[in-house]
Design brief:
By secondary structure, the chain is an alpha+beta fold. The protein has two helices and eight strands; from the N terminus they run αβαβββββββ. 26% of the residues lie in helices and 34% in strands. The protein has a three-stranded mixed sheet with strand order 2-1-8, covered by helices on one side. α1 crosses α2.
Length: 110
């Protein structure tokens, strides 16, 4: 599960920023090529019994941008994705998606 490794990195960065303090909110940006439900589930599992336990995860999704050799350049939606691959709407060429979670905010209690 690719999402698990992405969330492991996210949780580690949140813990680093929190420096032992209680985290109440984590806001991330997530491309539509990543399954949001899997991210949420991995977050719940990986934050149990740790400094992020009980924190709220908010996810803003966005369409990734693709630049293809055919000349197409622009955002692509879920309908142009297959797993972690993007399909060019101009020529149907298949490109690897560079999936990552972008940490926007780590809100600390207090």
């Amino acid at each position: 599960m690719h999402e698990l490794s992405l969330v492991e990195e996210l949780v580690a960065e949140c813990e680093r920023r929190a420096r032992g303090r209680t985290v109440t909110l984590v806001l991330v940006r997530c491309p539509v090529t990543i399954e949001v439900e899997e991210v949420e589930q991995a977050f719940r599992v990986l934050t149990a019994d740790g400094p992020l336990e009980g924190s709220r995860l908010e996810i803003d999704t966005f369409s990734p941008t693709l630049s293809c050799g055919c000349g197409f350049s622009g955002p692509v939606g879920r309908e142009q994705s297959a797993g972690h691959m993007l399909i060019c709407p101009g020529c149907a060429a298949v490109h690897e998606a560079h999936d990552t979670l972008e940490l926007v905010t780590v809100q600390i209690a207090g």
